[in-house]
Structures are given as C-alpha cells and as structure tokens.
Amino acid sequence: MSTYKVPTMAEMAASGQSPEVLFWVGCAGSFDERYKAVTQAFVKILNKVGVSFAVLGPEETCTGDPARRAGNEFLFQMQAVANIQVMNAYEVKKVVTACPHCFNTIKNEYPALGGDYEVIHHSQFLQQLINEGKVRLQGGGEFKGKKITFHDSCYLGRANDVYEAPREVIKALDVELVEMKRCRTKGLCCGAGGAQMFKEPEPGNKDVNVERTEEALATGAQAIAVGCPFCLTMMTDGVKNKNREAEVKVFDLAEMIAKEMGI
Amino acid sequence: MSVLSQIIFVLILGAAGYLLTKRVKFLKRNILLGKAEARNDQPDRRWKTMALVAFGQQKMFKRVIPAFLHLLIYVGFLVINLEVLEFVLDGILGTHRLFAPLLGAAYTAAMNFFEFLAVCVLISCFAFLIRRNILKVERLNKPELKGWPGLDANLILVIEIVLMFAILKMNAADQLLAERGVGHYITVGPLFFSGLFRPIFEGFSDGFLVFVERAAWWFHIIGILAFAVYVTYSKHLHIFLAFPNTWYSNLKPKGEMKNMPEVTNEVNMMLGIPVENAGEPPAEIGRFGAKDVNDLSWINVLNAYSCTECGRCTAECPANITGKKLSPRKIMMDVRDRAEEVGKSLDAGGPGLEDGKSLLGDYISKEELNACTSCNACVEACPVNIDPLSIILQMRRYVAMEESGTPAQWNAMFQNMETSFSPWKFSPSDRFNWAEKVKEEEMQ
C-alpha cells in the first residue's frame, strides 16, 4: 500500500514529466477549513483512478475573479497575467477545478490575456470518469435511496450552461434527486457571487442564502449537494441559520463520490 | 368631398411620417451617445437568435400565462397591420375596401380572422389591465414604476383596447350600410364578431351609420399613426427594438467579463513583460469603467431603449427578492432616462453630458451596484436579451478604479490579494498545507 500523491507542476517538470491535467485548487480549496476536505476528496479520487495530474501548490495565486467583479480590473489582471505566465511556462493544456469562479475566469477570461487552456469543472470531470467506468461506486453507501437536492452555482449554470453534469454525478449515487422550485436556468444564487462573499450584504429584509436554504429545505432533502466553495459556505450557514444542521448536511459532489468509493 | 378627405389623409400621413423621422433621429443619436462597439460576428447565429427570441418569442414562455396573452397581442399586431395597409391605400386613393373585389371569399375569411384577432387582443389587454391594477402582480407594482412608467403601461393597454373596438364598430356599421345598399359600401360576407355589435346600430339612420363608420375609420387610422409616434416616447418601443436588440445579443458565455486592454499594457510593464509599441505614447485613455451613458457601449443604451419594463429581471434578482435596493429593471430605466435627458439638453442647445449630472450618483447609487451578486438571473430572464449586469459591472469599475469608492471590506479583500495573493488574509506559504494530511494517508 502506498500513500496518496499530490505532485506539483514544479516536481513534475524537474523530473521531465508533464501531467495530463492541472488541478487548479483555488483559494477556498487551499485555505477554507471546510473546503479543504473537498480538495482532499478530489485528489483521492484522482489518485484512485490513476489520473495523471499535478497542482501548482505554492505557485498558485487567486485567479483575480473577486477583484474583477468588485471593479478592480487592475488587480485582476495582475493576478491573471502572473498565473498565465506560470501556466504557460509549464505548457499547461488542460485544467480541472472544483471552483466555478476559477473555472469561469480561466476558461472565459484568461484567453484575452494569453492563457488558452481546455478548462473543465470537476463535476464534468467526475461525470466523464463515471461514464468511462473509471470511478467504481461501491453502492449501498450512506447516500443510497436518500433524497438529495442540487443547488446550481450561477457561475457553472447560467454563466457557462453546465446544468446536467452535476446532476448526472448525483444520479450515479443511486439517490433520489429532488429539484428545488428555482433550478437550472432559474436557479437562485446563494448570495456570494460578484465578490459578495467578501463583504456584508447591502441593507435588505433577508439574506439571500437564507432564502435559498428555505427553498432547499422545502424539498425535504436530507442533503444539499453543491459544486462551488462559496455555495458550500452559504448553504451551510443557511442550514445553521434554520437550526437544521443536525439532519441536513451540505456536501460537495467530490466528497459524495469519494465517500461512495470508500476513500 | 372625397378629394378633400384624400388630401387631408395624405397630410396626416405626411405629418406622422415627419414626426416619426424626427423621433427616430433623436433616438438614434441618443443610442449612439454610447461608445462604439463592433458586434457583428457570427451573423448566422445572430439572425437565428433574432428569429427565435424576438420573432419567435422563445424566452417569453419562461412564464406561460403572460407569454400566451402577449402572443395574442403580438400576432394581432403583426396581422392586423396588413389591414392597415388597406386603410392607407384607401385613404390615399379615395377607395373603399380596395382589396375586397380582388380577393373575394379570401377577403371575407381574412376579415373574420382579423376580427378574431382583434377580440383576442381585447381579451389580452383586459387581462393585462387586471393583472397590473387589480391582481397587482408584484413585479408590475415595484417602486420604479410609480408615476409615468405605470401610467404609460396602462395608457398603452387602453389605447389598444380603443383601437380594437374601433375596428369592430367600423365593420358593423359598414356591413349594415352595405346591406342597405347605401353608396359605395360593399358586402364582404358574414363577419362574426362585428356582427355581434349590429343590434346596437340597426335602429339608426343611414346618415348616422355613415358617420359612425367614417368616424371609426378615421379614428382607427389616426389612432394607429398617433400610437406609432407615442411609442417612440414610451416603454413600448420594444415592438421595434426587440429585433435589433436580439440581433446584437451577447453570444459569449454569460460569465465572461469583457477585458480592458487599456489596463493590460500597464500590467505587463509592471510585471516586466515586453510590451508591444512600448516606445509609443499611450493612446488616450478615457475613463476606466462607466460613470455616465457615454462611457457605456451603444449596445447598453440600445438595451435600455428596448426595455419594456416587464420586470422579469427584477422578479428573479436575488438582491431584489431579499429587499435590497437593486432592481435590474430600474438600472435599464435609469440608463434610458439619462440618455433622454442628455439628448433633450443637446437638442435645446444645452450642456448635454456636461450638465453636472451623471448616471452614477444622480440615477444609480453605489448601494444598488454593490448589491449585485453577478448571478446573471436578470440576463437569463429577459425576454429580449437585455444585459443589465454588463452596465452594473462597468459602473463598479468606475467606482473602484476612478473613485476608489468600493466598500471598506472590498478594499481589505484587494489588499489581501495584493499582499497574500488570496482574497483572505492567509500566508501564501501555507497555500499547499492542505496536501500534507492527504499525503500521509494510506491509499485505500
């Protein structure tokens, strides 16, 4: 038995190798206590399946997304251009990330600054692995037969028209997928996009994540699945706000798959 | 008498044409207050988008009931306008029902179909008045609709109702006169819907019926011409602008924000990357982001003039749903109001853009801009592909880069990103710590 490996691009390059895919971890995936578990789960899946991957490790920086959405184009481009320099130096061709904001920025906004990569979200990557039979689910795990609802991330759904991949991943778990009233193109935001994650909401009569959590709870789901670190935080806070954290858990797709793989 | 009415008709037609031309020039100039932007790529996809979204009403059907009611008015508008062609030719040539002898039975069928559509339009307009004023559908009763916008909406519905009644009354009187063999009136065969009005008119004299028929005819055609002019002052402009507006849709992924190449050169120089044309003095850079309408793209202003204030954007906006000040519809109305204000000032020889006012501050507040989650719900919801988010983000750029006026917590986030390369204040050297635990674990 060996341990899990997390090779960096630098290590790979030093030994003259280049991985098939760069796993872009993102700031939440690197620093957020809760989301680190998602990063670890995804890395375990990659190891288990035998995907040739590497991470940038300490060479990764923020994509610049929140700075750009908050209006600071200068700061965004500083981050973006620096990241593109690093990725181009390693001749990165393909990028996978668990963060829809990183996904959107690298896929749609880096090309204008000289960064052209094939970028996919981890929900799409997991779906491919499942379809190819590379991810073998043990079945009968903790999710079997449970009611699960999926919360669409705006930057995955409306921003990039990815609606089905996360749902296919959930369905592979042999669960009952229940939809919220506002789903897919009509999905309601968790409230964190557009750099809202980094400030208090403007004055109003309710927090967006509470509104969304109420809708998720109304489905009777026993778990809320998400595919975005900000959504994970917002929905988890929402469930706590409603004092339902004992019965209703919020999971990222990669965590659910890893659990079902028994890793 | 006929010649006189022909002359009067042509004069009215000319006057309407003159007013319309003037208005179209005014609107075009206002739209072009926005910055030039070439968006002519992929013409095939553009025509297809226009055919589906504007002509085919595709996105209206995200809400089925209003979509169906709207479809009836839309089809009625398109088809009944064929009859207006006959009205205009009759008016110019001094004829009466010019096409009737040419088309025969087909004319009777067409008239019945037009009348059916007129009744459909009537039903829809009444239903819309009820939704707006009695059921008080939430999105049709938001604060930004107080005053003129709400009145405008009701006026349009009432005008359409009156115009449709005019058609039906005219046909009823016309056919009674034809049966009585009066003058030039010709029988066009049984007309079902206007036939229902006949009992009202049967007791009247020929002379009075001729008066009713002529009055309804003139009322209808003058009404339509006046309405066409009115539309240019109204939110109802969408009936024309929906078409170019959808043609100029954003075809890129909705999540993509437009790059600012004027920033890239500076960034490259700071990072020590060779810059093309480095020796040349930089091209004149206007403002970063948008403070006023002239900083926006002309397509943003076209969007604003295409907005019919249905509020589907606002009804889907997470900020608005949770009681924040932001309403994407208001953003569009503000852009239009500001463009109108600047346009009117320029026409009056006034200061135009230099009137000491601006879109930011006088129309749109920072609180509204700061409430946006950039979720694209408004963009997705718009039946004619208007993009309020593009305007919000351009204005945020102005606030951040020209005014340094972003909220303190965002400034802190910027600072973290500058010093720690993450929006949170963590040491960059800890970025890879997450891997330590997993690297120690035995692979199952």
How many strand elements of chain A?
8
* Low-pLDDT windows of residues of chain B: none
The number of distinct helices of chain B, counting runs of at least 4 residues, comes to 21
CATH class of the largest domain in chain A: Alpha Beta
- Cross-sheet strand order for the largest sheet of chain A: 2-1-3-4
**Largest sheet geometry of chain B:** none
Regions of chain A with pLDDT < 50 over 5+ consecutive residues? none
Helix coverage percent of residues of chain A? 40-55%
Report how far apart the termini of chain A are: 14 Å
Structural class of the secondary elements of chain B?
mainly alpha
CATH architecture of the largest domain in chain A: 3-Layer(aba) Sandwich
- Silhouette of chain B: elongated
Rg of chain B over CA atoms, rounded to whole Å, is 29 Å
How much β-strand is present in the residues of chain A? 5-15%
User: How would the global form of chain A be characterised?
Assistant: globular
Largest interface: A-B, 81 and 77 residues
The total strand number of chain B stands at 0
Helix content of chain B: 55-70%
Mean pLDDT of chain A: 96
The biggest sheet of chain A, with number of strands, parallel, antiparallel or mixed sense and barrel status, is: 4 strands, parallel
Mean pLDDT of chain B: 94
Organism (chain A): Algoriphagus oliviformis
Domain Cysteine-rich (chain A): 21-107, 148-235
Keywords (chain A): 4Fe-4S, Iron, Iron-sulfur, Metal-binding, Oxidoreductase
InterPro entries (chain A): Cys_rich_dom (IPR004017), HdrC_iron-sulfur_subunit (IPR051460)
